[in-house]
Amino acid sequence: MKGPVELSDVGARQGLLALSPVAVFLCLYLVVSIVIGDFYKMPLAVALLAASMWSVVIYRNGGSLADRIETFSRSAGHSNILYMIWIFILAGAFASLAKEIGSIDATVNFTMRFFPSEYIVPGLFVASCFISLSIGTSVGTVVALTPLAVEMASASGASLPFYVAVVLGGAFFGDNLSFISDTTIAATRSQGCRMADKFKANMWIALPAAVATLIIYVFMSIGAPDVHISDDADPWLVLPYLVVLIAAVCGVNVTIVLTLGILTAACMGLIYGVDLISVFGYMGKGIDSMGDLIIVTLLAAGMLGVIKAAGGIQYLLRVLTAKVSGLRGAQACVAVLVGIVNLCTANNTVAIITVGGIAREIGEKYGIDPRKNASLLDSCSCIVQCLIPYGAQTLLASSLAGIAPAAPFPYLYYPWALAAVVALSIVFLFPRRLSRKVR
């Protein structure tokens, strides 16, 4: 079996062909959905299946058909992908169990009792920002808050995709800034700067975007109708959710957080008269609901692995760095580079690691401060990761909410605000103290 293609070996025809599965997927899912005006009609798994099959067909330098399928399978079975599937399974079990015993309803009831209707959406966004900043993972934030968002939307009669988008936006705010986020660690290490310095540089980009988004939510919430609050919810049923939130904010590993939540919810269910077989049944129902999500994740990971092995990513790196000129052009190149690679890998950490070395070379050549470079890498990868319907965070949130992965897209205000601030920071070279390379 042949190995991955070297950067110098990738020609234009081969590179474009290697990237064609992404075009096949986007045409089948996004374009078809836009044309028919319904994102629920075209199954994401079918679009990814067709694109995955095409990726195996066009990977001619990958050896025999069996060898190409092995490359696909090895990428789909990567330890990071299987770890994500663990999270999906645990999240499904917890969400279903917590809902069936009344824990989520009680938590929503408790929340709405103390917050006026006008503050529900802004409060949900701020909570999402705070939790993700504290735990350093957008996935953990999505797991913790999406079930709450679903019930809040139901109680208030609001748009469910809108509430899910609020959680997603806040989740990526913290993921972009947190000191313990894997994207922050990857960005700072690749550029050779301290996390505290990158945090200060990133605040000039992420904070204005978050404030602008919060203002939008505040204005949208003015005059929101009062929500009827029932009095029959038992406050003790909030405990499973409280355990999950506290453990998440304390930085506990997300798999342990979910396990603690499942155990607490199971105990509360037994205390309130739910028999053990029913508890297991609720958990099994939640795990079953993750089936489509797991299939989509495996197909996307395998397809993107073949694209990388066929030389698609290497071709992108070469083309996008061929005509860099000037400080603004160099910063724009870094931003576009990590964004497009993230589009092809559906993983912001992997995108940063992939282009980090080249971004550092561009920075040293054209005088980009390492702190600004790290900020661009982290911010732009998070923008794309939040917007693509096949990113792990969006897939998980949409699965927990029971909506199409593309449904939250029209309401994703934060990533667009972040993109606008990134563009302004490149055009006007702010913060000014980072416009020249540190010597």
How many runs of DSSP E, i.e. beta strands? 0
Distance between the termini: 46 Å
Please compute the radius of gyration using only Cα atoms.
22 Å
Ranges where pLDDT stays below 50 over 5 or more residues in a row are 1-7
Oligomer: single chain
The global form is globular
- Percent helix, as a range, is over 70%
Separate helix tally: 20
Describe the structure using short key phrases.
disordered N terminus, mainly alpha, 0% strand, globular, 439 residues
Account of the 3D structure:
- The protein has 439 residues and is mainly α.
- Helices cover 75% and strands 0% of the residues.
- The chain contains 20 helices and no strands.
- It has helices at 12-36, 44-58, 65-76, 79-100, 103-114, 120-135, 138-156, 160-177, 182-191, 195-221, 239-249, 254-271, 276-289, 291-309, 312-320, 326-345, 348-366, 370-387, 392-401, 413-427.
- Helix 9 runs parallel beside helix 17 (348-366).
- 54% of the residues are buried.
